[in-house]
Design a protein that fits this description.
mainly alpha, ADP-ribosylglycohydrolase fold, 17 helices, globular
Length: 321
């Protein structure tokens, strides 16, 4: 499979997972199952069918900034977040306030101190990080730096930054794998465990739990109880990784599993889609879902072109290096 397809698959996969889960965000697993059965198709919610939320909108901003600067320029990225910001996309209050403060002239370095004591450990940085995972797939230390810098604009808590780095690393590992080969899931988790910072030991514990679950086949209720389905980075990044690995043979089944866990299911869907898309490529995404995606000025076609541009810039920087 061509690497370009994996770049496209990851960014479109973010959009797909986001749009599939958006109508059900905040609903618990049992209520969703009782009301809808297993969710397999995109539906209308507060927005039209196939519309993305802040997850994808911020991912677009990250990709645009990486392309324009051929790498991370955190000042430029902060400006892109402000430029792309549309409150109707469903931003959480912390990010809304952070962007509002930046628009009022507060330096991004100080925004976190105005909102949270110690910074936010929400999953807002992890949900948008896929472009950095793609761009730095071959340099994990640069990937970590990029994830930390990207996160620091709005999510400066160590757990928020580390969650974004681990999500980016999962995308990077998926890029390097051939979906036609048998995936060594234990090796995938072990390498993520080794990558996870020892300074945030919680993630190593959660990744070990993912490893255990891969050998136990837990119920969705157990996954929610022990990994989480909430809006913290700790309660969603490992869940997205498990959703992918437990259903790695199929982009579709991985996304269906992730979204049907409920809770912050648009973000867990977006992160699962980023990893699964990086693994399966665009070809692995069901056509019916691609056809459902919004395709206005910054919709499906634009996101695909953005991924192709990111791939081209990556090739250029490798040649220059």
């Amino acid at each position: 499979m061509h690497l370009k397809s994996k770049f496209v698959g990851s960014l479109l996969g973010t959009h797909v997972g986001d749009a599939l889960g958006a109508p059900f965000e905040g609903q618990d697993l049992v209520s969703m199952q009782s009301k809808y059965g297993t969710i397999r198709e995109m539906r209308e919610g507060f927005r039209s069918k196939g519309c993305y939320t802040d997850d994808t909108e911020m991912m677009i901003a990250v990709a645009e900034s990486l392309i324009e600067n051929k790498g991370v320029d955190v000042d430029h990225m902060a400006k892109q977040f402000m430029k792309k910001y549309h409150p109707s996309r469903g931003y959480r209050w912390g990010t809304r306030l952070a962007i509002s403060l930046m628009k009022q002239g507060v330096p991004w370095q100080k925004v976190g101190d105005y909102i949270y004591d110690g910074g936010s450990f929400g999953n807002g940085a992890a949900m948008r990080i896929a472009p950095a995972g793609l761009f730095y797939y071959d340099d994990l230390e640069a990937l970590r730096r990029a994830a930390y810098l990207s996160s620091s604009v709005t999510h400066s808590h160590p757990l928020g930054k580390e969650g974004a780095a681990i999500q980016a690393c999962a995308v990077a590992f998926a890029v390097l794998l051939n979906p036609e080969d048998i995936l060594d899931k234990d090796s995938f988790i072990l390498k993520l465990w080794e990558f996870a910072s020892v300074e945030t030991t919680l993630y190593r514990k959660l990744l070990y739990r993912v490893y255990s679950f891969l050998h136990q086949k837990p119920s969705p209720e157990e996954v929610v109880a022990l990994l989480g389905n909430n809006s913290t980075a700790m309660g969603s990044v490992p869940t997205a990784i498990y959703s992918f690995l437990a259903h790695s043979e199929s982009f579709e089944e991985a996304l269906i599993y992730a979204v049907n866990l409920g809770g912050d299911c648009d973000t867990i869907g977006a992160m699962t889609g980023a990893i699964a898309g990086a693994y399966h490529g665009k070809e692995g995404i069901p056509h019916r879902w691609l056809n459902d995606l919004e395709n206005g000025l910054l919709g499906r076609t634009y996101i695909e072109e953005l991924a192709r541009s990111l791939f081209r810039i990556k090739l250029e920087t490798k040649k220059e290096g």
